[in-house]
Structure formats: structure tokens, C-alpha cells
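Reopening closed ticket. The problem is back. First fold of the pair:
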Amino acid sequence: MPNSLATFSKAFAIGGDLIVNRIGYGAMRLTGQPGNFGPYTDWEEGETLLRRAVELDVNFIETAEAYGSGFNEELIASALYPYSSGVIIATKGGIHKPTPNNIRADGKPESLRRSCEASLRRLKVEQIDLYQLHRPDSNVPFVDSVGMLATLKGVGARISMAAVGRV
């Protein structure tokens, strides 16, 4: 039987044109603990970890506004900005987390717009490679949330791809 790992390529495309390596980095744990809330306790260590991941050919970094209440995105920018060519930053909006144990979906169109604009500022970018709806909001018609993602994608090409992830 041939080695099945040999059939996998090193990288693949998502969304048609974003080429990602098979190993990415989910940055959720680079937040304050407990509850993934607030800034990471050792900022320099977090920067070192992120830089080392990119050195090791990790080109897909995943974060969310809810991770550390935005501090996670700031840490990524602090470590990696200006971003190397080919580094893809994915982030999510649609969750509000005012305290460590208080998390709720917030898919209101105006909230998604504010979240996206705040992520752009924190990540120091004009365009987000992959922006996702973190969780559908049962109090908001799904079509309204997705409609805002489509609007954001169309305004100034700030979003290359909008997707929906259920966490």
C-alpha cells in the first residue's frame, strides 16, 4: 500500500485563490486565562511564537475578535506586521464577549460592520484575507448577517472571502 501522506501536497487553495500550507496556527490560546479573555500574559513570548510559526512555513494564522476581546488580533499585528508575502490572516466577527464567562452571538448587521472595521484597525490591514461569521445569531435572521458579509466584501474589496463557521 502506498504511503497516503505522499498524495498530499504541501499547500492547497481555499476560496479559489488563497494558497495555504497544510499546517496553520489557531491563535485562540494566545489570550488571557481563564476564559480566553484579555491580553496574553507574556506578550513577548506570544510574538516570538507567532514569528517562529511563520519561520517554519506556517502561512495561515486564524484569530477572532472574541479571542482576548481583540487583544489577540493586536498581538498578531505586533508580531507579524508588516506581514510577509503569502501570510494569510483569517479572523471572525459575530460574537460579543464582555467578560470571561459571558459570550453571546451578535450577528446584527451593524455589529458585524463595527467588528470588521475594528479588526481591520487591530490587524493594521486594509483588507482581511478571510473574514468569517463566528456563530449564527438565533435572534437575527441569518440572511441579514450574511447580507452584511456580502456588503462588506463588496465595499472597497476589503474582504477577499466571506464564510460561515459554526463553532
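Second fold of the pair, where the issue appears:
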Amino acid sequence: MRRDGSSRFAPANKFGYFPAASVGWKISSEEFWNVSPSAVTSLKLRGSYGKLGNQEIADYQFQGTINSGIVYTYNGVQSTGGLQTLVASPDVKWEEKEITNVGFDAVLLDGRLDFSAEYYNSKSTDILVGITIPASVGFSNLNPVVNAASLRNSGVEFSIAYHKRKGAFTWDVSANISTVKNKVLALGGNNEPLVGVGARTRIGGEVGEHYGFVYEGIFQTQAEIDQHAKQFGAVLAPGDVKYRDISGPDGKPDGFVDEAFDRVSLGSGIP
């Protein structure tokens, strides 16, 4: 059990508790195990659970700051005043990640072959993110840090290694493979998708999934351009890229290809 404290959080949220535990059972050491060592030399089952904390934010986010060196003009008179430059986040606390692993390790063929398999599941909650607030609020930092988002990563990992010794010569070869399934559970605020250049993060999807227009080929003739939906208001010519008109304000193709209605998910951004 860990008890970590951070001065980046208000006194009421300064400390976080992060337990961890693991168990293992070397089943091949049990009396009932009667498998030949030349087939299965060793077999171990294992599992673990742990919780980690993250405090990677700027200092004093739980306090508001005021800049007293602001110069402004009122009724033709220049004066010096103050401006609150940081929105206080007094309730910000530790981001937490829970990780569960189960798997086994096997040694086969009198130690010549090692094989491991593992399933993992991690869930991050109270993720520290900056949320957007209206500029009309009057603060210079429009992305105060709060505990908002949560996501889950799960998958399997496999590794295998072969060892060979012949006289004074020894060689080893190994390989591994892993999978990951990423799912966004919450984004904070009103849970609106986060859309960037060529990427989107939304609830139920992956972090940073590819997001854009559907490629349909290259315009070959002016007649083909004339028959196609208009793209971004641009003047097109043969040789330009052609994109699909997917939708419009009423949910049907509207003769225009634009960012508001015609971008779609194009696949995972995770290798």
C-alpha cells in the first residue's frame, strides 16, 4: 500500500492511496504434477492488481492567480488594475489507474523453449485534462485543469523464446506480440468529441482515431468535376482529389463536401 502526497493539489486532496498485490502458483512444483520435464519443465500461473496515481499538472492549479500589472484605459484615462489570470480548480485531485493482469509462464522441452501469455485490463479515471470554458468568463486561461476523462485499455501479450546450445556455441531467438483495445469512457464537461486535424476522440471510440474525408479517386475530366459535389468551395481541376459527399444538414448527401457533415472515422490511430 502506497500513500503518496503532492503539493500540486489542495490540502484536502493532497494524499492518494495506491494498493497493489500479486499472487503466483508454480503448479509444476506440486506433488500431483506428473508431466515429464522433457515436455513441460515448469508452469507458473500468476495474477496481479495495482493502482497508480498521476499528478502531472502545473503547480498551484487549485488556487486562482491575479496579475496586478494590467494597464487599461477608461474614459480616456490610463490606469493600472488587476486581472485574474488563472481559474482556480480547488477540487482537482489525483488521477488514478487500476491495472489487472492474469497470465502464465511455461518452460518447455527441458528448458529449450519459454512461453508466456498474459491478459491485461487497465482503467484510468479522473484523468487530468484541460476543459474549454467560454471566453466571456473573462479569464486568460480558458482550459482549467479538472478531473474529467476516463478510458480503458485491454488486450493480450504473448512471448516465446527458443534457446539452443551446441558445444561452446549458444544462440537464442525470441518473438512477442501484443494487442490493445482502447475505449474512451468519458471526456468531461458536456462530453463533446475532441476533433483535431485528421483525428477525433469521442466516447465509445479510441483516443485519436483517424477522422477525415473518404477518398474516391482523382478527377479525370472537367465533366466529372461538374457532375460531382462541390468541395470546400474550391475551384477544382482535373488531377485534383475527389472526396465523397456523405451527408448534409438533413442527414442526406447535399451536393457539398465540407468538414461539418462529411468527415467520418477512418480507422484506429493506435499501431
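Update: turned out to be a display glitch only; the data is intact. The helical segments are 222-227, 259-262. The chain has a mean pLDDT of 90. Please close again.
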